[in-house]
Design a protein that fits this description.
Length: 195
């Protein structure tokens, strides 16, 4: 029996998958496609794949805090997830300047309005927010995406940026705590219709 268990561990490690331990609360073997290690992407395609994969495959609870959000492709991915049969709840904070949303005012308000209409998404603008992270928590897997990338077409296609995928419970807990502190404790939050 031990011989077969050792062979299974070798196979899993060869495939880049960690073996499941009874002490783990979530099994990376339940994930498709598997993302059970820290990954960093620097290319447009790699970064977009991480974001789309997270929205399409992970998390019943999604928290996103991002300075700029004008990339329609990501908004479309969120709307696609909303139309699926997979239940989820998403909270989105977008950075705002003292005089309203960031540089691309009309685009951000349009995306905010599109997403805020969805049954499972709540969107707010937060004065001075400069974070760039997403927390994806679910029954089988927790994941944080963070890095230098704003969620704009320019950031993905023309700037040098990166996104890091971190499947770690402590990291998820830390980012979740930061998100709710921003969401609940700030007196400078605005709704989409307030700009």
């Amino acid at each position: 029996m031990q011989k077969y268990l050792a062979m299974a561990v070798v196979v899993l490690l060869t495939l880049g998958m960690a073996p499941y331990s009874p002490n783990q609360s979530k099994s990376p073997l339940d994930i498709s496609p598997p993302i059970n290690e820290i990954r960093t992407e620097f290319t447009q395609t790699g970064m977009m794949n991480l974001v789309e994969n997270a929205f399409e495959n992970f998390g019943e609870h999604i928290l996103v805090a991002v300075h700029d959000f004008t990339y329609q492709s990501i908004a479309d991915t969120i709307m696609k997830r909303n139309r699926s049969d997979e239940p989820f709840q998403m909270y989105l904070l977008i950075g705002a300047e003292t005089d309203g949303p960031n540089r691309n005012h009309e685009t951000e308000v349009e995306i905010c309005t599109q997403l805020d209409r969805l049954r499972d998404v709540q969107v707010r603008f937060l004065l001075g927010l400069n974070h760039k992270f997403g927390v994806f928590s679910g029954e089988h897997f927790d994941l944080v995406l963070t890095g230098s990338t704003d969620w704009t077409k320019e950031a993905f296609e023309r700037q040098d940026n990166h996104i890091v995928s971190i499947p770690d419970a402590e990291t998820v807990e830390s980012f979740t705590s930061e998100f709710w502190e921003l969401w609940n404790d700030s007196d400078v939050i605005y709704g989409c219709d307030e700009f």
